[in-house]
Amino acid sequence: MIKAFVQAIPIIEKIELAGYEAYFVGGSVRDYLLKKDIDDVDIATSATPEEIKEIFTKTIDVGIEHGTVVVLYNGQSYEITTFRNESEYEDFRRPKDVQFIRSLYDDLKRRDFTMNAIAMNREGRIIDPFSGCEAIQNKLIQTVGEPRERFSEDALRMMRAIRFVSQLSFSLEEKTLMALKENGHLLKKISIERKTKEFEKILCGKNRQRSIQLLIDAGLQAFLPGLDKESEALLKFSGFECEKLNLTEMWALLLYTLRVPSENGISFLKTWRLSNQKMKIVAKIVANLEIRFSKPWSELSLYQAGAEISVSVEKIYQVVNSDEKNEQMIELKKRYQDLVIKERSDLAITGQDLISWKDETGGPWVKELIEKIEQAVLIRKVPNEKEAIREWLYTCNLK
Ligand code: ATP
Ligand code: MG
Per UniProt, where does ATP bind (predicted)? Predict the structure, then answer.
């Protein structure tokens, strides 16, 4: 067994000592069988959240109504979820109420895919009532039970299937694929936040190309914000070689491929309910990408974009032109490093200086003049020194 599991064995032992069952389950067992790295182990138990809180001294309530308690143990935190049954589904969405149950089998049965419905006890024995190990061996994604029924219970599972294609490079088992193609419309009922989470995992997976193609093939893009009439652009998007792009860069590339003008970027991203911070970064990348496509980098455009955005822009530019050049990136970073000023506060003068030199009250003219000075300093027309700038303003009659 690997370290992450070994460290958690005392937790399972404590729960068992109190008279309950507990197992490793879910993504951690799947990834362990796939010999992938594991960050967090998931534990499922027959004990209720209240019973777990009696066993451990340090716990945090994170989702008691869903049966999850976080236990802090030896400096690590563990999510412990009570066996549950989700038989009551409302309106193609995951259930509001869950019933706690005492049977591992029934807990595994409510899970989405056979590869995610495997449990492992503290000795490393695998409990696999739905042949998940075989599916893993065959690199197949198949639902536990009838795919049509399982997708009708919770339509998000269709997007989860596709995101696992992206992350694991597995294929969809035929019946699961058929059900996916027939039931896309059920995604209408799913909250955008849940869809966004899976879509972002699709964007970041190694096999994003095939998974986006699958999304289009199955017609699921019709139920995603802003993508309903965009299968052609999306197909083009899936064709880019973009292993090196991070999540915000992927969003920016998507907006670029969909030809969303930069001024509409924020409203597009709002429909996906991205965080304000993420929206701002993506929109800034898109705006600077437009400039990059119209002309090569200048001192001013580098300055305006800033260090991180300019690198992101260049990465995307190279992806779109299928022309990855490391030397160019190094050169760009060097040019940025060599800029005389990196931000407005680096300028040797302030708006206050201009106001006192001109002996006038402030107004929009201050900002305009500062921008002119920035440009002159950036192209090294004027040294970034107070006196030199003042003199330059006189000679140009700008003061
Ligand atoms: P990841 O490595 O991305 O965390 P994961 O399989 O652990 O993948 P989670 O979203 O963390 O995915 O879910 C944990 C487990 O809960 C899954 O492995 C699966 O057994 C179950 N599960 C999650 N979402 C659903 C769902 N919508 N329907 C049924 N079971 C689900
Ligand atoms: Mg997980």
Answer: 27, 30, 111, 154, 157, 160, 163
Q: Are 109 and 101 in contact (CB under 8 A)?
A: no
Query: Regarding the domain delimited by 240-339, which CATH topology (the fold level of the hierarchy) does it fall under?
Result: Methane Monooxygenase Hydroxylase; Chain G, domain 1 (1.20.58)
Retrieve residue 236's tokens: 């083009």
- Residue 393 contacts by C-beta under 8 Å, 6 or more apart in sequence? 357, 369, 373, 399
Share of the chain above pLDDT 70, in %: 96
Q: Are strands 76-82 and 42-45 parallel, antiparallel or unpaired?
A: parallel
Q: List, as ranges, residues with CB under 5 A of the ion ligand 2.
A: 27
145 labelled as ligand-binding?
no
Please name the residue whose Cα sits nearest to atom 17 of ligand 1: 26
Q: Tell me the two tokens of residue 251.
A: 């969003």
Closest CA to ligand 1's atom 16: 26
Domain boundaries, the chain: 1-138, 140-238, 240-339, 346-395
Cβ–Cβ under 8 Å, residues 141 and 170: yes
| CATH assignment, 346-395 | 1.10.246.80
Q: Is the ipTM of this complex over 0.90?
A: yes
